[in-house]
Each structure stands twice: as structure tokens, then as C-alpha cells.
From TrEMBL, chain C:
UniProt entry keywords in alphabetical sequence: ATP-binding, Cell membrane, Ion transport, Iron, Iron transport, Membrane, Nucleotide-binding, Transport
UniProt-listed PANTHER family: IRON(3+)-HYDROXAMATE IMPORT ATP-BINDING PROTEIN FHUC
Source organism of the structure: Halopseudomonas bauzanensis
Main location: membrane
Protein name: ABC transporter ATP-binding protein
Topology relative to the membrane: Peripheral membrane protein
Cellular component annotations (GO), alphabetically ordered: plasma membrane
Length: 347, 345, 260
């Protein structure tokens, strides 16, 4: 058997550098990109006044009517781009956390980070208002929750379930406080905050999406760098260290990165739970490998969130139901399915 | 050991007596606490039969429509959630189980929401019926999953609870958002509060709780034996399926009663059942007695605190319990009570 | 220059001392076994030498260079370590597992080279992994999985290899198979240090033994010299006879029964 190149791989030789491209991974990446584009156009086309997909493409190309241009550029595009960026972020964060905790059932949503982010935004939006939407409060709140979590549970890799249980307790706590904070105000006063806390993208503006996208782009090289040691962490701390990975540093880095990215994704439209859990699972399933690369998980996150968004808008017409509710329901079912699938019969 | 008809070690009798005394004290405190000008003196005067106070309509109203129903509800809800938690913990062999964390509360809420929105339910009986339906569904799924997962993955059961809460909660929210008026009423209630307790509701729900308690008491012995595992229990002649169905019914009734009275309250069941297990690690019937006692104590104390802490406003007791219960849960888990569970994949 | 030298090593966990003043140097190209009763500090010693635990007191030199001076990746090129119960990632094939062994020699811009291919092929041949090459690693049986792990270790191509109880959970047939593979590794002038539970296996296969007793070196040297009735009885609180194996005279330990 010829093992000069590992099987299923393309080798890219650029001068003296050799980079490996796993064939299946890149094919799937392409597939997800195409799917995302299709969903993108589809999403822009639906709404209070439906447009056909062809009209949407025409408008995007500068050939649409004035009315269509307003609808697309002023109303729908901000929402849809917000959904895409949030989905990308959640996919990335989920991939990082799942590898770190070595557990498919792990997700940033279940470690209290989302609730912390949410609570911070609620506090700033309702009580310490500063005018514009306080999306930056999200990473702050998330950091607070993360510090609490880290202080309580030092080694997320070796104690996966401890991490999750403490995270659940922290989320319950923040959730209760956040809901209470909102309950003191009448619904009308709450405005869009209430819907935001359930994951709602209708009022997303470029003011929020733009800085977040830039930050995420800036983080991309870091994530690319981390992909290889990330793959080795799957084998446990001892083996990873044996293969030359500086385990404590990488773990801390991954955790921090995951929480930052998750909180950025949350800041856009509010917490959309379970996307971070489901996206890496879909990515792995596509590549038939247990660890799909971060960018593929990100794409899957975007595709899933887009799908949920479209679904909820179609099903609930003419009401505006937050997208997060759809991800919650579907994600809950997925989690139940995963739990039952891996069961071991006993007794 | 103090010899009586019921065999309990002395320290447990002492604890029981102390608990009862504490409960009485809290009952009185609960009657004396609240917004308004009526303090302990007036309330006790009222009960002692002081003519002047008896004639005071406002005092009578406060006592009969606000404080007494609330206090009694606290007893019912605290006791119900605690005993339900003990039952669930025993049936799933999972020390973290309770209706809140396992998503059963969420199921009951969803049932109630469906009843409220689609069937215009308004009476206590109606609430009971619909929240029972929801709780039943939640319990079915959770106990079913518990059966499938076995003892190998006790923490996966908690995750199943998270999943169920998400599904039920999501569905509830979905239905409510399409119905703005219902949403406004629902928001505060969803945090768990005893402020809307009514004497009529208490009167209707008390017999249901007693029936559930009776059922739970009957299941105790068999459940205790089932701790050894299904095959051993069957060898001793226990119908494990029947016992599980009994647990299902009892837990459903308890949860539905608690939800109908006060909305979803988490953590109190877990805390009470945990403390009960510290007192009596083996005999389930004793555990349940202590569990009910602790549940009543905790909830009553929390409710008093909720009324007192930010006077003249009121904290929802569910929020307060989450704020206290979550750190306690973390502390317990970190301490190592569940170390053996946490190493399982 | 010895491949590994240890001087005055002390180590403790949470105020509980585990190793006391351990010193030795390892001869090159041999299979050395660390033996001793439960709790004598064997695993701890190995982990310290592998850089898995931080040094507290004492010095460890790898190829004449202080252990503490190596970066994680540089150390990974000098020694390979296999823990007692290695975690197998789901869904990867044996081929990929062995390839991961090349990680310490690769970089972000140098993800695969001819040398990598050669080492992987070599490891595959030595460990006879050809029939298992495309199998999912987590589906392998105990003995097969252990060979796959050893394949990864071999692909790392280090002079020093540390193995923590590589045969613990295996039956006697698989144990001998794995020990034979391990012996084969030393033929290339590599040094292998293993913690081994089974004294009999250690006596049979190891060139030299280090016997630990409550964190101290009780004896060190060729197996025939170390395995004496006196030592075994003292260390393990037993009553044994030492016989000579029929084919090569290696020590065979036979416990005496207390009752007949």
C-alpha cells in the first residue's frame, strides 16, 4: 500500500511548505457553502411581501426595483447577515468546547455563558441604558460566567461532567435573575429586549453585526492555528502532551476563545441555544470523522441557524416568533436523541 | 434507640421534633409577615379571639385571602416537590433528580399553557387536569430515559432533563407569544410565586396531595428494595413495572399540584431530598417524611424571605430559590458527594 | 552519554511523599522494567521522567540535557510516553492514529514529508498493523488497540520510550505478544522503560529491572541479579521460590502455597 501520502488527502505543495487537505472535508465545505448561499437567497425572499429568488438575486446585483431595493437592503439583509454571523460564531464555539470537554453533549449554552451574556445585556439595555444596543455587554457577561465556571472547575478536560453540571447550575441562576429583572417591567416597556432574550433577529442592525464580524475575522488566524493541537486533545491530556502539545496553555486558550466567540454570536440576536451543540455534530457526520475542522462546524452552524430562522418565519406567519425558540425545540429533540442513541443497556 | 411503634434512632426523633417546632415557628412568622400594617401582634390577637381585631374586616381579609392561603400553599408545594424529588431520586437512582431539573415542571407548565390558551381553562380543577397531563408526559419521557440509560450514566439523565425543559419551554413560549394577553399574565407566574394563592385552590388541591402521599407511602418499601437493581428486586417478588407506574402517577400528581398552586419552582425538591438522604440514607419512608418536612421548611422560609427582603415589593420565590439553590448545588457537587458519578462517560 | 539520568529525585502529592531520593542511569538500547508493589511509586516515577508531572526536587537529564529545559514539542522528539489507560478518540482509523505520532516533527507549514511517510510505514510494519490499517481504532480489541498505540509511539521515532503498564488488561497470550513487540523495538538501539505489574513477565522479558519499594530504589540491575528470593519476599510480603526457565535460565517466580 502506498503511504507516501495519507489516504483520502490532497497534498498542497507551495514551495517548501506542505499542507494537507482532506478531500472529503473540503468537498463538504463546498457543499455547505453552496447550501448557505441558497438559504441566504431564500431567506431574503420571504417576509411580509414575498419576493421570488430570482428577484432577490436581481436586486442584489443592482437590477431590482426601488421597492425591492429598500426591502432587501434596509430590512432583510441586516437580519439575514446577522443570522449568518451568529450561526458561524455558534458553530465555532461549539466545536471548540466539544473538543475541549471531549463530549458531544457539551455546548457553550449549557455552561452558563449564554445566560451570563444575556443577563448582562438585559441589565445594560433596561437599567443602565447607554443609547445604542449594548452588544458589547454580552462578552462581559459571558466572561463573568466563565470566570465563575473556571474558578469552580479547573480542569474541564478531565472532568467533563462536573463542568456541565456546574454550568447548568450557573445557567439556572443567571436565567432566574435575568427573567426576574425583566418581569419587573411591563411588556411594552421591554420592547425588543424580551424577544431578544429568546433569540430574535428581526431587529438586528449593522451597528451590531459589523463590529462583531470584524472581531470574529480577527480571531480566525488564531483558530486556524489551534486546529491541530485541538485534534490531539481528543486523546486525553497525557497523550496530547506526549505528542508535544502544551496542554494547559492550549486548554485555556480554547476555553477563552470558545466563550468569547459564543458571547459574540449571542450578542447579535440573543441566545440561540443548541446550535453550538448541533453544528459540530453535523460537521462530523458529514466528514465521517470525529473531529471536523472549525470552519466546517462554523458553516454548519450558519446553515442550521438559517434553516431554523426560515422555518420559524414560515410557520409562524404573520406572527414574529423568535428563532431561538425553534432552535430550542429542535435542539432539545436532538439532545434527547443523542442521549438515547449512546445508551448502554444495564440491569 | 427510643422504642416506639415506629422504629427510629433517637437522633432522628430529635430532628423530627426540632423540625416540627421550627415549622410551627415559621408558620406563625409567615402569618405575621407581609406588606401592610398588620404585624404579629394583630395576627395572633385575631386568632386568640380578640373581639376588636375580629371585627376588623381588613385584617380578616389579609389573613384569609392573603396570608393563610399562602402559608398553607407553601406547605403543600414544598412538601409535594420534596416528596416527588425523593421518589424520582429513588426510582432513577440519581441523587440529582427533581421535577425542576428533570424537566417535569416544564412539562406541567406546557400542559397548563395549552389548557389556558386553547381551552380557556380558568378553574383550579382545570389547571390541575392540564398540568397533570403535561407532567405525565414529562415524567414518562424522563422515567423512560432513566430506564434506558440505566445506572451507567446518571448525569446523562440530567442532560435529558435539560433537553426536556428546552423542548417544553420552547413550545410554551411559542404558544404564548402568539397570544399576547396570556403572555403578560404568564411572565411573572413562570418565575414561581405563592402570591396568587387562594384558599379555594388550597382546599381543592389538599386531598390530591394526600392521595399522592398515600400512594408514595405504599411504594416505599418496594422502591427501597429496588435500589439493589431490577433483577434482584424481581427475584424478591417485586413487580418493578407496577412500582414504576406508581412512581409515575405519584410524581405527576405532586408536580401538578405544586405547579397549579405556585408555578414552576425548582431546587427546593432537590435540596430537601438531599438533606433527607443525609439524615436517613436507606429507608425510603423515613427519607420521605424528612424530605416533606424539609421541603415545607425551605419553601416557607424562602417565601417569608421573599416577602421581607425588598419590602414593600416582593421577590418571586422561584427566583430566590434559584439564587440560593444553584450555589448550594454547586457546593455539593464540588464537595464530592457525587465524585463517583462524575467519572462515568 | 547515558540516555536518561536521574539524580536525587523526590516527589510528593499534597504533603504525601511518594518518591525518596531516587537516582539511577539507564543503559542504552535495553528494555528496562520498573517493578514493585502497589503504591511504591512506579507510575509516578515514569510520569515524572516523561515530563507529565512537574519536577519538585532532583534532576532528570535526557541525553545529557536537563528535562526542564526542553519545550513540550522538543521533549516529544526525544521521548515517547504511553499512559496506562490511553484515551482513544472516536471515529479515527488506525492509519490516522499512527500518523498522529509524527506530530512533534511537523509544523503548521510542514504538515507531511517523505520522512513522515517512511516512519509511519516502518511503524506499521514492525507492529504488523497492515490488516488493521483502515479499521476504526476504537473498535479494536485490547491487544490490537495496544499494538496500534505502540505503532503511534514508534512513528514518533524517539530514542527513549516510556510505557506505563502496557500489558495490564491483557490475557497471557496478548501479554506475550505485546512484550515481544516491545522487545523488538529495542533492537534498534532504542531504550524502552516500562512500568510492569506482573513480576513474572518482567523477569522474562526485561534486560534490567529497577525495583521500587515505597518510593526508594530497592535494587537495580540485570533481571537475574535483581530477582532474588530475599528481595521478592521482602518487597511483596510473600514466600516464593525462584526457578530457572528451561530455555534460557531467566528467573521464574513460583509462590509457595500456605496450605496444600
Amino acid at each position: 500500500m502506498n503511504t507516501s501520502i495519507p489516504s483520502g488527502v490532497w497534498r498542497l505543495q507551495l514551495g517548501k511548505a506542505t499542507v494537507l487537505l482532506h478531500r472529503r472535508t473540503w468537498l463538504m465545505t463546498l457543499l455547505m457553502l453552496v447550501t448557505l448561499l441558497l438559504l441566504f437567497v431564500l431567506s431574503v425572499s420571504i417576509g411580509s411581501a414575498d419576493m421570488s429568488m430570482r428577484e432577490v438575486i436581481a436586486t442584489l446585483g443592482g437590477q431590482g426595483s426601488k421597492l425591492h431595493e429598500i426591502m432587501v437592503y434596509k430590512i432583510r439583509l441586516p437580519r439575514v447577515t446577522g443570522v449568518v454571523v451568529a450561526g458561524l460564531a455558534m458553530g465555532m464555539a461549539g466545536c471548540l468546547i466539544q473538543t475541549l470537554v471531549r463530549n458531544r453533549l457539551a455546548t457553550p449554552d449549557m455552561v452558563g455563558v449564554n445566560e451570563g451574556a444575556s443577563l448582562a445585556v438585559i441589565v445594560f439595555a433596561l437599567y443602565l441604558t447607554l443609547g445604542s444596543w449594548p452588544w458589547w455587554a454580552s462578552p462581559l457577561g459571558a466572561a463573568l460566567a466563565a470566570v465563575a465556571l473556571f474558578v469552580l472547575c479547573r480542569r474541564p478536560g478531565e472532568q467533563g461532567y462536573l463542568f456541565i453540571i456546574i454550568g447548568i447550575a450557573i445557567s439556572e441562576l443567571f436565567n432566574a435573575v435575568g427573567e426576574f429583572a425583566m418581569s419587573t417591567q411591563p411588556l411594552t416597556h421591554l420592547g425588543s429586549v424580551y424577544l431578544w432574550t429568546m433569540g430574535h433577529f428581526a431587529h438586528v442592525s449593522y451597528q451590531t453585526t459589523q463590529p462583531i464580524t470584524l472581531i470574529l475575522l480577527a480571531l480566525c488566524p488564531l483558530m486556524a492555528l489551534i486546529n491541530r493541537p485541538l485534534a490531539l486533545l481528543r486523546f486525553g491530556d497525557a497523550t496530547a502532551r506526549n505528542l508535544g502539545v502544551n496542554v494547559p496553555l492550549v486548554q485555556l486558550g480554547i476555553l477563552g476563545l470558545a466563550i468569547l466567540v459564543a458571547s459574540l454570536g449571542t450578542a447579535i440576536g440573543g441566545p440561540v441555544i443548541f446550535v453550538a451543540m448541533a453544528a459540530p455534530i453535523l460537521a462530523s457526520w458529514l466528514t465521517r470523522d470525529n473531529l471536523a475542522p472549525i470552519w466546517l462546524a462554523a458553516l454548519c452552524g450558519a446553515v442550521m441557524l438559517m434553516g431554523s430562522d426560515i422555518l420559524v418565519r414560515v410557520l409562524a406567519q404573520p406572527n414574529e416568533i423568535p428563532t431561538g425558540i425553534m432552535t430550542r425545540i429542535l435542539g432539545g429533540f436532538l439532545l434527547l436523541f443523542l442521549l438515547i442513541k449512546d445508551r448502554q443497556w444495564s440491569d | 434507640m427510643v422504642k416506639t411503634a415506629i422504629n427510629l434512632p433517637t437522633h432522628q426523633w430529635a430532628l423530627l421534633a426540632t423540625g416540627a417546632a421550627l415549622l410551627t415557628a415559621l408558620l406563625m412568622l409567615s402569618m405575621a409577615t407581609g406588606a401592610g400594617v398588620y404585624g404579629a401582634a394583630q395576627v395572633f390577637g385575631y386568632f386568640r379571639g380578640d373581639a376588636a381585631l375580629l371585627a376588623d374586616d381588613k385584617l380578616a381579609m389579609i389573613i384569609h385571602t392573603l396570608r393563610m392561603p399562602r402559608t398553607l400553599a407553601a406547605l403543600l408545594v414544598g412538601g409535594s416537590l420534596a416528596v416527588a424529588a425523593s421518589l424520582l431520586q429513588s426510582a432513577t437512582r440519581n441523587p440529582l433528580a427533581e421535577p425542576g431539573l428533570l424537566g417535569v415542571n416544564a412539562g406541567a407548565v406546557m400542559g397548563l399553557v395549552i389548557g389556558l390558551i386553547y381551552f380557556g381553562v380558568e378553574s383550579t380543577q382545570g389547571y390541575l387536569v392540564w398540568s397533570s397531563a403535561g407532567a405525565l408526559l414529562g415524567n414518562l419521557v424522563v422515567l423512560g430515559i432513566g430506564l434506558m440509560l440505566g445506572q451507567a450514566s446518571p448525569l446523562k439523565l440530567i442532560l435529558a432533563g435539560v433537553a426536556l425543559s428546552a423542548v417544553f419551554g420552547g413550545l410554551s413560549n411559542y404558544l404564548l407569544l402568539a397570544n399576547q394577553t396570556a403572555l403578560e399574565q404568564f411572565r411573572f407566574w413562570n418565575l414561581g410565586s405563592l402570591s396568587a394563592s387562594e384558599l379555594d385552590a388550597v382546599r381543592i388541591i389538599t386531598p390530591v396531595v394526600l392521595v399522592a402521599l398515600g400512594l408514595a407511602a405504599m411504594l416505599c418499601r418496594q422502591l427501597t428494595l429496588m435500589q439493589m437493581g431490577d433483577s434482584q428486586a424481581k427475584a424478591l417478588g417485586i413487580h418493578t413495572t407496577r412500582v414504576r407506574i406508581g412512581v409515575l402517577v405519584a410524581s405527576t400528581l405532586f408536580t401538578a399540584c405544586a405547579i397549579s398552586l405556585a408555578g414552576p419552582i425548582g431546587f427546593v425538591g432537590f435540596l430537601a431530598a438531599y438533606c433527607a438522604r443525609l439524615v436517613e440514607p436507606v429507608k425510603l419512608i423515613t427519607q420521605m417524611v424528612f424530605s416533606a418536612l424539609f421541603g415545607m421548611l425551605f419553601l416557607l422560609a424562602a417565601d417569608i424571605l421573599a416577602r421581607w427582603a425588598i419590602q414593600p415589593f416582593e421577590l418571586p420565590v422561584g427566583t430566590l430559590l434559584a439564587a440560593i439553590g444553584a450555589p448550594v448545588l454547586i457546593a455539593i457537587v464540588l464537595r464530592g458527594g457525587f465524585r463517583s458519578l462524575l467519572t462515568v462517560r | 552519554m547515558t540516555v536518561l539520568q536521574v539524580r536525587n529525585l523526590q516527589f510528593g502529592y499534597h504533603q504525601k511523599p511518594v518518591l525518596h531520593d531516587v537516582s539511577f542511569s539507564l543503559p542504552r538500547g535495553k528494555l528496562i522494567g520498573i517493578v514493585g508493589p502497589n503504591g511504591s511509586g512506579k507510575s509516578t516515577l515514569l510520569k515524572l521522567l516523561a515530563g507529565q508531572l512537574p519536577l519538585q526536587q532532583g534532576e532528570v537529564d535526557i541525553q545529557g540535557q536537563a528535562l526542564a529545559s526542553f519545550s513540550t514539542k522538543a521533549l516529544a522528539r526525544q521521548l515517547a510516553f504511553l499512559p496506562q489507560r490511553p484515551v482513544m478518540a472516536e471515529g479515527i482509523r488506525v492509519e490516522q492514529l499512527v500518523q498522529y505520532g509524527r506530530h512533534p516533527h511537523q509544523g503548521w507549514f510542514n504538515q507531511w514529508s517523505a520522512e513522515d511517510a517512511r516512519q509511519v510505514a516502518r511503524a506499521r510494519d514492525i507492529m504488523q498493523l497492515e490488516p488493521l490499517w483502515q479499521r476504526i481504532a476504537s473498535s479494536l480489541s485490547g491487544g490490537q488497540a495496544q499494538r496500534a498505540w505502540l505503532g503511534m509511539i514508534l512513528a514518533q521515532n524517539t530514542d527513549l520510550i516510556l510505557l506505563d503498564e502496557p500489558t495490564s488488561a491483557l490475557d497471557i497470550g496478548l501479554q506475550t505478544e505485546v512484550m515481544e513487540s516491545i522487545r523488538h523495538i529495542t533492537t534498534e538501539n532504542r531504550t524502552v522503560l516500562i512500568v510492569i505489574h506482573d513480576l513474572g513477565m518482567a523477569a522474562r522479558y526485561c534486560d534490567e529491572l529497577i525495583a521500587l519499594d515505597e518510593g526508594r530504589v530497592a535494587a537495580m540491575g540485570p533481571a537475574r541479579e535483581v530477582i532474588t528470593k530475599a528481595l521478592v519476599d521482602r518487597l511483596y510480603n510473600t514466600n516464593v521460590d525462584i526457578l530457572a526457565a528451561p530455555d534460557d535460565g531467566a528467573p521464574v517466580i513460583v509462590p509457595r502455597r500456605r496450605t496444600s
